[in-house]
User: What shape does this take?
Amino acid sequence: MCYDDNARPPITPNDGAAHGEDIVLTAEDGNRFAAYAAHPAQPGGAQILIFPDVRGLHQFYKELALRFAEAGISALAIDYFGRTADLTARDDSFEYMPHVMQMKMETFRADVAAALAHLHTGAGASRATFTVGFCMGGSLSFRTAASGFDLTGAIGFYAGLSRVMPPGATGTILDIAGSITCPVLGLFGGADQAIPVSDVEALDQKLDTAGVEHEIVIYPGAPHSFFDRRATDYAEASADAWQRILTFIETHTAWRSERP
Assistant: This one.
């Protein structure tokens, strides 16, 4: 598990700069799944789709969506388990692994398509669109960027690189890295026992070989899930990661608007 119920993003809230709402989205196959939409008081030119960790949509990601919106970035966080767990709560009591093991790439894609369609309604049709994910969600962020969706950029925290997620998908992230079609920002902990630095270095090399624009950052000594307000020993790494995300989004939003 990446984050428990007490985890919160390590970003100071800006009260009044955004508001959020729980919503339910419907995929093309009829699946209904939970989502959380955060709306800036003053929207900018970017929007982001948030992929949670293995527990699905819980409070950490709702708070993260609000922090993006407070920065002027419209945000939507989604749940993965509408087909197998309906719209039930994703608190610490949720037994997520049986549902993770039932995920399928084709149904995940259907949910992503519905989420992106929601983001692209109204003014969102002209906004630069990014993805960000954590742990399994980090892998899914990169996989989405290799799956034919029109994204401006993809961001992943501590993405698993050498295991197949969701189960039954084609290849690992290292296997499909060359198929990514947008710029990438990868953020990793140097002391993450689940993700060897050698895997991160291999990702960097594969993106180089494929000519994919990317920035890969390893924070020395930082563990898995370091991006948490309780992880005070890694507050500097968290602050740097957040600033890199905002800069990545700003830079590529501007680049997109300048294209003919």
Q: What stands out?
A: The first strand starts at residue 18 and ends at 26.
